[in-house]
């Protein structure tokens, strides 16, 4: 049965019960009224007639007057037609008979009194019979009323119980399935798709339950098929990552290892099962490579694994989703081959520049001899050619020198001769060496170096070389007749800072970070100005090898300032 019909049946049932109750009440009220009516109609009237007769007799003692007789006749006739009780007929007839005799009685007073007495007697009997009937019928009416009240009370109590149980159970009948459905829907929203509802009824709730079960079944199937495809994709990505030559390690935002491919496992020396799900800093406590990967921000790592030494470049990528960092991927690229090629290149450059130095020096010697008048006269054109060759030889010597320095740095063969030097010494050597070029361009070098400055812990030659290089660049990129400032001052507590400022064309911001890279030259630098692009790279290596720092500030159109710092010498040194 549908809920609609159940509701109809329930309300109809209650309505029927209410109707029955009303019907019963009306029936008993009717019965009561008919009982009372019977008393009024039959017996009360008889009593009334008899009383009328008696009062008429008593109104005029003695012989009956014609008026009395008329009234008594009338009432006796009415009583005659109103006989209802057993025995009443007999008393009524006797009364009538006696009354007839009384009417005919002559002037015999005694007889008249006797007849009148008998007449009264019969009338009293009629009255008694009716009074008895009234009393009896009253009892019957009382009994009817009691029975009616009792029955109506029973029916009312029964109706109350039925209505009460209906009121208690019916809301639950509607609300319970809705409550259960709500709870299941909440579970479904938490992705718990194994939900099934079993409504036993065949009504709309039964259909609803069936529809809900179908829905969760479909969702479950969908979830499983989705899961299967996600798992498939995961396996595919894992296979791709595992087949890569680079070591790849994935960490979540809490530094828990999510995956590590085979190459990474080999390098770390642990199995994937030992790594996955572990907190990376915990692994780092006992694993050097993991410690380097987490702590060290070195771009190049030397790793010894599988009895081989290899070089790896380290790259760390943050993984973000919706502007929130959800983890990072560390990639170790095997660059051993490039490293070996690079070393070969460096060795080659070192050998070549070393080998070139001797013949270039001998060319320079020969040029010196050619300039000597004792060897013979040279005409002005030849002198110009000799001067050009001399310039080029000087440049060649500078380039081979720089290449050699760089090769030394790259092969780790850089030798530093540390000593305790006053900054003024470094400044004097450098300014002296660069004076000729500065004068040629009419550039004034303004030096500010306080004599009270403490000594520095440095390699005099290398630091002078760096300062000459910076001054040489500053002059090169300055306009004619301008100034270059060389300032030396205290920086922090234990450092001395050297700065070289020019007022040349300046360097664009975008090139500043690359300025100290090997072979880097700012685009559009004329070949006349530019050299090998190694000067600043070597300067950086020299300064960093002495635990100092080198940096640059520049503004297009205003000029540039190059800074480097050196450690202050310890007092005893
Ligand atoms: P180079 O031997 O070519 O001068 P450097 O390493 O000394 O090589 O300089 C690298 C590049 O930086 C130069 O090619 C030049 O473009 C730029 N540079 C260096 N110093 C200055 C400066 N003071 N003003 C403008 N540009 C400069």
TrEMBL record:
Its main location: membrane. Residues 351-570 form the Histidine kinase domain. Pfam families: HAMP, HATPase_c, HisKA, PAS. It is found in: Cell membrane; Membrane. One of its GO terms (molecular function) is protein kinase activator activity. SMART domains: HAMP, HATPase_c, HisKA, PAS. PROSITE patterns: HAMP, HIS_KIN, PAS. It comes from the Bacteria. It is a multi-pass membrane protein. InterPro entries: BphY/WalK/GraS-like, HAMP_dom, HATPase_C_sf, HATPase_dom, His_kinase_dom, HisK_dim/P_dom, HisK_dim/P_sf, PAS. Residues 233-278 form the PAS domain. It is an enzyme of class 2 (transferase). It catalyses: ATP + protein L-histidine = ADP + protein N-phospho-L-histidine. Residues 172-224 form the HAMP domain. Signal peptide: none annotated. CDD domains: HAMP, HisKA. The chain crosses the membrane at residues 12-29, 150-174. One of its GO terms (cellular component) is plasma membrane. Keywords: ATP-binding, Cell membrane, Kinase, Membrane, Nucleotide-binding, Phosphoprotein, Transferase, Transmembrane, Transmembrane helix, Two-component regulatory system. The keyword tRNA processing does not apply. NCBIfam families: sensory_box. This is histidine kinase. It comes from Mucilaginibacter rubeus.
